[in-house]
Design brief:
single chain, 191 residues, alpha+beta, 5-stranded antiparallel β-sheet, 5 strands, 16% strand
Length: 191
């Protein structure tokens, strides 16, 4: 197929838009006192409880150990949608151009932006887990409450699990398609 690389680039870039429909990340807190685990779904535009009342329950628990209240309003929720929409549109336009070097440049740029986003997420988790109110009802010297960036971690009697959600898998599939588009274009040029 003459334009397979273009189709892959366009499709891969368009898959970023799934982040407007599906959550990007999920943090789940499992504990014996909660038969249904508590959870937060992190979208590019908002933060929601996995179940009704989860954010309120998490904030209540966090209050006792001195953590700040989890807010559903953050500057990232204004910035991320613009970045994702812009990169998707840019990738689609680059796909129509068919220029393989632009495919690679776009892929490298989205990787850099993704790493910056994960670092921002780490800083957010660190702030919530370490900057505790010294007047908290429960104080355990040396204890931090930061969930893992990815994976699971025991925090007191909770198992905190932090994993990509549906939107992240669509995004990763899109990135794989855009990298494949570059490889296909490279092979086409060489043959």
């Amino acid at each position: 197929m003459k334009s397979l690389h273009k189709i892959l680039m366009i499709l891969g870039s368009a898959l970023l838009l799934s982040l407007f429909v599906f959550p990007l990340w999920n943090i789940t807190l499992e504990a014996p006192q909660y038969p249904t685990p508590l959870g937060m779904d992190i979208w590019i535009t908002k933060l929601t409880g996995t179940n009704k009342g989860d954010i309120q329950n998490i904030n209540l628990m966090n209050h006792y150990v001195g953590m700040k209240e989890i807010t559903t309003e953050m500057k990232e929720f204004e910035i991320f949608p613009i970045v994702i929409a812009g990169m998707s549109i840019l990738g689609i336009l680059i796909g129509f151009s068919g220029k393989k070097n632009l495919f690679l440049g776009w892929f490298i740029l989205i990787l850099i932006l993704g790493i910056a986003g994960m670092y921002d997420f780490y800083l957010w988790e660190y702030d919530y887990g370490h900057n505790l109110n010294p007047k908290a009802a429960i104080k355990i010297p040396g204890q931090a409450y930061q969930p893992p960036l990815i994976g699971s971690k025991k925090i007191l009697n909770f198992n905190a699990i932090s994993l990509p959600a549906t939107g992240a898998y669509f995004m990763l599939t899109g990135l794989a398609l855009t990298l494949t588009a570059y490889v296909v274009a490279l092979k086409k040029e060489r043959s």
